[in-house]
Amino acid sequence: MRAYLHDGDLFAITENEDLVGVLLAIRADDTVEIKNLAVVPARRGAGIGRAAIEALAERASSEGVTRLIVGTANSSLDNLRFYQRCGFRFAGVRRGFFDSYPEPIVESGVRARDLVILDRHL
Ligand SMILES: CC(C)(COP(=O)(O)OP(=O)(O)OC[C@H]1O[C@@H](n2cnc3c(N)ncnc32)[C@H](O)[C@@H]1OP(=O)(O)O)[C@@H](O)C(=O)NCCC(=O)NCCS
User: How many domains does the chain have?
Assistant: First the structure.
């Protein structure tokens, strides 16, 4: 995350002044890419991630952005579900994106190999 911090906007997600998550987004032309979204484990499943996406969509739209995009591994089944629940659709696949990683990543018994790009038009 550190490598691209300077290029984007890092948002703190707060609830009653407590930090409950972070969102890192990078704008390029008329698109905003979500580079990272994380909610603290104790507060997941409570609508915070969805609210963060909606806040980002509203802000981006008001600044002339027409599309949100996010990339996630084929093995990140929870993320694939989450983003589709938030209105994103599959937009492309970068096959073999994770093949050069030194250690294989396995989630839910599925090996990460391809980067799935999802987008949502605003
Ligand atoms: C993915 C993440 C940001 C979602 O945030 P959240 O606050 O837990 O999500 P919400 O409560 O707003 O959930 C929105 C929808 O996604 C679903 N969802 C969220 N997390 C889910 C999970 N782990 N498994 C299944 N469904 C999930 C919810 O059920 C909800 O759907 P609903 O409309 O049916 O209720 C959060 O779980 C997280 O921080 N995960 C770990 C970090 C990560 O992998 N980030 C993605 C990298 S970009």
Answer: 1
Which CATH number goes with the domain that contains 60?
3.40.630.30
Asked if pLDDT for residue 3 goes beyond 90, the answer is no
Separation of alpha carbons 104 and 120, rounded Å: 29
**pLDDT at 4 > cutoff 80:** no
pTM: 0.90
Q: Which atom of ligand 1 is nearest to the CA of 46?
A: 11
pLDDT digits (tens, 9 = 90+) for 106-122: 999 999 999 999 999 99
Q: Is residue 41 in contact with ligand 1, taking CB distance under 6 Å?
A: no
Distance 67 CA to ligand 1 centre (A): 20
Three-class DSSP labels, 26-54: EEECCEEEEEEEEECHHHCCCCHHHHHHH
Calculate mean pLDDT across residues 75-82. Answer: 98
Residue range(s) defining the domain that contains residue 14: 3-121
